[in-house]
Amino acid sequence: MLALTICVPCYNSQDYLRRCLDSLLPCPDDVEIIIVNDGSTDQTLAMAEEYAKAWPAARVISKENGGHGSAVNVGLAEAKGEYYKVIDSDDWVDRQAFAHILDILRNQGEKKIDLLVSDYVYDKEGKKRKRVIDCAKALPSGRVFSWEEAKRFKRGQYMLMHSMTVRTAMLRDLNFSLPEKSFYVDNLFAYFAAKHARRMYYIHEVFYHYYVGRADQSVNENVMIKRIDQQIKVNKLMADESHYEGIPKKAAQYLFHYMEIVTAVTTILLYVGGTKKHVEQSRELWDYIKKECPGVYKGLKASYLGVILTLPGELGRHFALKCYKLANRVFGFN
After folding, report:
1. pTM attached to this predicted model
2. Where in the chain is the domain with CATH 3.90.550.10?
3. Nearest residue to 204 via CA among 159, 255, 139, 114
4. What are phi and psi of 212, to 5 degrees?
5. Which pLDDT band holds residue 223 (cuts at 50, 70, 90)?
């Protein structure tokens, strides 16, 4: 078996795919790169086939458009690597950290880790100062550990799909699959992996460069509001997964923290949208969480974010938006 499969989902990626693939190739013989062309209508497929022809480690799977989750599912089904990593086509990786990660994946004993965590950086368009997201104060570095050894994550400090390399068999054994025709499913991937991982390893190095700031990007605020139904869908699916019986206490604490952040993002986006329908969708989302996971709902309502987000009436929503805009100026969200 190969050490690692890297899946590169692509949709109309001709303007940035080369940067992504050039950061990965050439790669060692025990690594494969699956470029999943998700129904692109530009030169993405031709570009991907050019790389596959030049590098035996790369291969192309072309399919009808099914969304980011669909491409991740296809890559997982085809993966021959013991570990699985998703790298979006507009992002890229650090070669030195890449080599270090491969050394860790190769040199394990009989008991394999379920999840390798590394740092990532927001490479925001037009910004010289880059924001690095790490877990250095929350996770032990440079060794295998369990959830019992994790410390509390700070707000804004969490593990996205960008920071995760996951044992392929764990995902397959749990019948993991992402919904199709939907954006923002990377949150489901990260939530699921964190929930089920038991043996983990963290390296305090930036591996992943997360490119943000394009006007058409899925994480652009205006785009997210237009696609708010998909954000709500993902939030509800996370609620469906928010049953923490039988999992380590520290894992449950982290998952609650993640659920809190995603729910806050969804609620604020609905408030930014500002229509009567958006307000009704916000109420319906919170009612759904209350019904599906009342314990989590109680915790969300009691947290200071929850208190701000659920203040009654138009004045309450106005105050929540003021807090959001202040935080945005300080932290520079997407």
Report:
1. 0.92
2. 2-212
3. 139
4. -130, 160
5. confident
